[in-house]
Each structure stands twice: as C-alpha cells, then as structure tokens.
Amino acid sequence: MSRITQFWRPTADNWAGGVRSTFGRSEFDDGEGQVPGSERSRIQHETAIEQAYVLVEAAQGHNDAARVERADREAAAGGWDDVRLLLHFARSLACQDAGADDSGHVEAMSDLAARLAVPSLLALSIAVKAVRNADRRRTTITGESVASLFVGAVVLLDEPDAAAPAVHRVAALIEVGNVAHQLGFWELALEYFTLAEQASTAALDGRWSDIARRQLLVVTVNRCELLLDWSCALAGIHEWEHAAAVAGSALGGDDPTDDRWPPSWVTQYYGQMHLLAALAGNEPHQPAPANVAALGAAIQAARAGDDVRACGLAEGPTQFVEIPLPSCTHLLALSLAARRPGTAPAAIRYGDQLASLRWNDRVDRMAGIRDAIAVERRRRDHEQLRRDLVLDELTGLANRRGYHAYLTALQDPAAHLGSEYAVLMIDVDHFKAVNDGYGHDVGDLVLARLGHIFAGHVRQTDLAARLGGDEFLIILADVLPEVPELRAQRILRAVQTHPWTDVAPGLSVSVSIGIQHGGRQELPALLSDADRSLYHAKNHGRGRVGTLAPSAPEAR
User: Fold this and answer.
1) 173 near 124, Cβ under 8 Å?
2) For residue 247, what pLDDT is reported?
3) What residues have CB less than 8 Å from 476, skipping those under 6 apart?
C-alpha cells in the first residue's frame, strides 16, 4: 500500500527553499531590535519544530541526511527533545523508503516520548511502532502485539494535551488512522482521519497553519486510499450496493489538487478516484493510466453482471498497474480475472468463501479491538480515580491517605527497601499572616508553588506529602546520615529564592524544617522526633533547619 505517513514528498525545487538549517536574524527581530531572551528561545524552538516536520516530509522520497543531522545537533543544544523525536521519525521514514532497518529510530522515538510525557507524542511514537510491527508480522511473529500498541495509542489521545502544538496531535491522529487501516479496521481509520481533518482545520488560523495545511493534504490522500480499500473489500464479497455507498462518500466536492501536489500524487489520487467512481456506479471523470482505466471498466462490467467482459478487462491489471493501489483492490482484480470461462465453479466458490471468511474475521477483530479500547479507557479512569484518592488536589503531593499508604508499604517484609530513612517535617512560617494580608487565593497559590518546589527535591522512592493546612512532610528513602540536612538546606534556599513577588507584590515566604534520620523500623519515632526538631527551628528564629538528638527510647 502507499499510505502517506506525514505530508508530501517535496520536489527538489520546493525542498531547496523549504528549510533552513540555522535560524536567521529576521525571525527574532521585531524591527526595533532583538526580542527578549525567553521569547527568542520560544521562537527558535517553534521554528525547529516546523523545520522537523518539513524534514519528515522530505524523508519520504527526498531525504537529506546531512540536514537532519544538523537539525538534530541544534535540537540537542537547545534541549528540544520533541524536535529530536520528530527527527528520529524522519530517519525512520527514510530507512523505510530505502528498505533499511529503522528499529533503532523507532526505539529512540519511544525513549524520548517517555521522557517528555506529552500524550500526543507518546501516541505518535506508539502508533509508529504499531505500523512497523504490522509490516513485520508478515515475516516474523516477534514484537509487541500490534493491537495492544494500537489500543494504547488510541487511549493516549483521550488525554488533554493543550500545551503541545496542535500539529503533534494531528500527526498522532494520522498515524493511528494508518495503523487502523493496516489492521483492516476501516471504520476506525475513517474516524481518526476525520478527527485529524478537524484538528488540522482548526489549526489553519494559528501559528502552525502551514504544517496544518500540509497535514490536510495527507488526510485527503490517505482517506481516498482507505475508502478504495474498504469498498473493494465489500465488492469482493459481492456487497455491491454497500461498496457503492462507501465509494460514493469519497466523490463530490471540488478537486483538492493544486500546484502544491507532487505530480505522482496527483496521478495516484486521480487514478484511485477513477476506481471509486466505477465502484459507486458513476461514470469516471478523472483521468487514469491505461491499466487503472481497464480495472475501472472491469468493475463496471462486474456491476452490470457481465463476468466475461470483467474477466477480460481485469487480466492486465492483475499483472501490472501504474499507481499504488491498496491490497483489497488487487484482490478484487484477481477475483474478477478468475471468473474466466472454464474456471471450475468449485474454485470460484472457494475464492468467494475465503473472501467472506476474511471479512467476518475482520468484523470480529474490530469488535474485539473496540472492546479492548473500552476496557483500557475504564482501566485508566480507575487508575486516575485511585491517584486522585491519594493526591492533594491543590499541591499535587500525596495527601494523608497517600502518606499512610506509603507507610503501610514500608512495613511489607517482602519489599526490597533500603534500611536508612530520613523524615523532614516542614511548616510554612507565618502562613496565617499570608492568608490574612493577601487573601486565601494567594495563600493557595503559595501552597501550590511550595508543592512544586518540594516535589522537585524528591526521588521516585521518596515521599512528599501535604498533611493539611500549611504542614508538609518529606520521607527520604535509603539515604546516608549526611544527606537529610543537605537536602533540607537546598529546599530552604529554593523557597527563599523563589520569585514570590510574581504571586503578589511584596510577598515573601519562608519555611521551617525539622529533620531526623534513622532506620526503617524506627520510622514512627523518627516522625515524632522530626516534629520536635521542627518546633525547635520555629522557636529559634524560623526560616531554618532544626535538628535534635533522638529522644530516648523510654521517652518515645
């Protein structure tokens, strides 16, 4: 098949002027001088994303490996992992075009997507892997299930992704549609191409209008091929009326081709539209190469019940066609050609039965995949609900329920956990004065920002929790005795140097921290001793770290 992954294959002329490997001064000059550094960085990043998408285009027929490498070096220097992901996508497509192994680039996309945690880019990377695995399943049984990858990508696209460029979501929707088409789930593929069309149309008036316009072209070409594949499959089981309805949905409207379309794409599109018109029972008006036109005439003859004429016309197209056609179109040509006079009736019935079995299997598999998507959506909803139960909504840290769940897990004798732990009890200094002087909305913003600061100073094995009000707790797992005070001092400095005046003019915030270190089995006592250390810090000037010797066992 010839489905297009992203955009068109540029000609040498439009490619030469389409991309710059470095950023020109004019992009950052407002006519009065240079723009501020943060704005310059944003523009550079957006320009790099746009360049990466153009390189993805070029990889499908006009790859420039040196330009991709230069763009990758710039992206690495800028810390733009999203750009690097798209450049690995471009390399993957170039490998596919050359018949080379692209698995390293597909894995690199997955690694970068996991690091970024952007839903649309995660969905894109998973969908690319699914397409590759679908291609390879014809020759190998190894690799992740295409269906499970597809389900994962679909459900990721349910997640909000407002912060990411709209074109990332469109790219993911196109690729998910391609996976669905590859699996024979034409109804699902059409749904995702329609979503991609809607999302790219909505982006036409924004920053990404040029890329969105090109993505619309991709949707147009891929949907045409999808509808041809689908209607030919229906014709192959003699559902001519249903085939006509599907094919007819592609007809009508203005001719979308223009001078931005490569000539090969125009030829392919017109040829496929010629066949769709024949399947719909219309007189084809689009020009088509000789064997494509012959297949269109064969389809018309078969629709009219003239199997002999259809067989004669289909013979040539079974050997060669001038444009890429989907698999079910080739199968329909073979089916029509097989009905030549003299063919054993049992052989024809055998072919018809196989076509019906393939269709019924497809319907069953699609029902199964829809059920799997529904199950995965419910699983994610339940997972989110569980997270919500143990997370503080304001700060994003664990709440008391999450704190107790963490302590319970530490008591599990089967858990392979470190033996040395530290507790940091944290209290916001004069928080009541913040609420009284600035209002509770500002107070909530302070707590939210503190939550972000504390979260940035813990590892996955640690715990940061809001116990209530302005009381926080951090548990550091598997740490040496000298670490807790160093960590507490860093937190203290991070709070002191935070730009609180951005929250409210004149606002300043400090915290007091009490720390205690000991063995895992001593955690209940450590919590009590850290609380004592906190009050020591508050009673000796606030805005500091307090450390007291552990209380005697009998006092505990």
Assistant:
1) no
2) 97
3) 421, 422, 423, 424, 458, 462, 483, 484, 487
* Rg of the chain on CA atoms, in Å: 31
Residues sharing a CB contact under 8 Å with residue 434, sequence separation 6 or more, in sequence order: 428, 442, 443, 446, 507, 509
- Which residue stretches of the chain have pLDDT < 70? 1-38, 137-144, 385, 412-418, 551-556
Beta bridge pairs of residue 515: 424, 547
* HSE of 181, CA atoms in CB hemisphere, 13 A: 30
Cβ(347)–Cβ(338) under 8 Å?
yes
SS3 142: coil
Q: Nearest CA to 419 among 283, 338, 503, 521?
A: 521
- Of 340, 354, 258, which Cα lies nearest the Cα of 306? 340
Identify any residues that bridge with 516 across adjacent strands, giving them in sequence order. Answer: 423
Between helix 345-390 and helix 146-156 the angle, nearest 10°, is 50
Residues 315, 337 contacting (CB under 8 angstroms): yes
Q: Cα angle at 522 between 518 and 525, to 5 degrees?
A: 100
Write out the two tokens for 509.
């915030």
Distances (CA, A) of 171 to 50, 95, 104, 107, 398: 13, 19, 20, 18, 35
Q: Rounded distance, CA 8 to CA 124, Å?
A: 18
Of 366, 364, 358, 367, the C-alpha closest to 332 is: 358
Read off the DSSP letter of residue 283.
P
Q: Hey, which residues does 409 pair with through a beta bridge?
A: none
Question: Rounded CA gap, 284 and 244, in Å?
Answer: 13
| Sheet of strand 420-428: strand arrangement | 463-468, 471-477, 420-428, 511-519, 545-547
* CB of 71 closer than 8 Å to CB of 52: yes
* HSE-CB for 397 with a 13 A CA cutoff: 31
- Concatenate the DSSP letters of all residues of 11-23 into one string: -HHHHHTT--SS-
Give the three-state DSSP class for 291: helix
- Tokens (6 digits) for 425: 């009890």
Q: Are 99 and 118 in contact (CB under 8 A)?
A: no
**What angle is formed at CA 289 by the lines to CA 283 and CA 295, rounded to 5 degrees?**
55
Exposed e or buried b for every residue in 292-320, given b needs 16+ CB within 10 A? bbbbbbbbbbbbeeebebbbbbbbbbbee
First to last CA, the chain: 74
- Looking at residue 461, what is its pLDDT? 85
Q: Compute φ and ψ for 67, nearest 5 degrees.
A: -70, -35
pLDDT tens per residue, range 431-453 = 999 999 999 999 999 999 999 99
DSSP H or E stretch at residue 463: strand 463-468
pLDDT at residue 26, as a whole number: 34
Q: Burial level of 531, CB count in 10 A (0-12/13-18/19+)?
A: middle
Taking each continuous run of H as one helix and of E as one strand, the counts in the chain are: 21, 5
Beta bridge partners of 421: 477, 518
Q: Are 165 and 208 in contact (CB under 8 A)?
A: yes
